[in-house]
């Protein structure tokens, strides 16, 4: 997928159609090593090229509509909620256009819940740093686990909406699936 993106970027810069200078082109994905918080995952790793499109209206609402001070906690939370609302509506509308008969509520739920989870993450990080003095980089291991667990558990509905309706083809990445095995154990225990 990166090669297609780079060809589009090359065309966009040389033609002046999308970007004027090469410095405006962002990588498709950032470094996976930055995924020790959800904020880093969404802002530095996943969909780098969409960040500006989501940040611009979010920042405008935070600063000019809500009048939240730049860099403040309130400004950050408003920006999270607006960006995920825009992204959620975009993903929902794209799915709805493809299959009008489905409601895709799990997709909307994923994008509605994520900024609230990021709020909890911000609070936990703030408390850990200020009250407990946790500033050591070794705590990033906990962050990687947190990010993995949250994304894996919360994206189940969103992914289910996409796979069940044929919008995304599912294929095994491994010869076995630890997630599938855990879900089967969980489903069996309920019945």
Automatic annotation (TrEMBL):
Gene Ontology biological process terms in this record: lipid metabolic process
Bilayer topology: Multi-pass membrane protein
Annotated localization: Membrane
Metabolic or biological pathway: Secondary metabolite biosynthesis
Source taxon at top rank: Eukaryota
GO molecular function, one term: O-acyltransferase activity
The UniProt record lists the keyword Protease: no
Annotated InterPro entries: Wax_synthase (IPR044851), Wax_synthase_dom (IPR032805)
Membrane listed as a keyword: yes
Main location: membrane
Family to which the UniProt record says this protein belongs: Belongs to the wax synthase family.
PANTHER family the UniProt entry points to: LONG-CHAIN-ALCOHOL O-FATTY-ACYLTRANSFERASE 3-RELATED, OS04G0481900 PROTEIN
Full protein name: Wax synthase domain-containing protein
Organism: Alternaria tenuissima
């Amino acid at each position: 997928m990166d090669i297609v993106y780079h060809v589009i970027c090359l065309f966009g810069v040389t033609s002046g159609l999308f970007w004027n200078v090469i410095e405006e082109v962002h990588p498709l994905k950032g470094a996976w090593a930055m995924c020790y918080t959800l904020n880093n995952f969404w802002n530095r790793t996943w969909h780098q090229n969409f960040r500006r499109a989501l940040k611009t209206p979010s920042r405008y609402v935070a600063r000019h509509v809500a009048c939240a001070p730049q860099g403040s906690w309130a400004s950050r939370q408003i920006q999270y909620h607006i960006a995920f609302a825009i992204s959620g509506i975009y993903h929902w509308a794209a799915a709805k256009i493809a299959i009008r008969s489905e409601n895709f509520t799990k997709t909307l739920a994923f994008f509605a819940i994520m900024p609230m989870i990021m709020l909890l993450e911000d609070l936990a990080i703030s408390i850990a740093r200020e009250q407990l003095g946790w500033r050591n980089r070794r705590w990033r291991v906990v962050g990687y686990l947190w990010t993995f667990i949250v994304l894996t558990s919360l994206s189940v509905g969103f992914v289910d909406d996409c796979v069940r309706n044929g919008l995304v083809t599912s294929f095994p990445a491994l010869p076995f699936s630890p997630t599938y095995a855990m879900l089967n154990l969980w489903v069996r225990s309920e019945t």
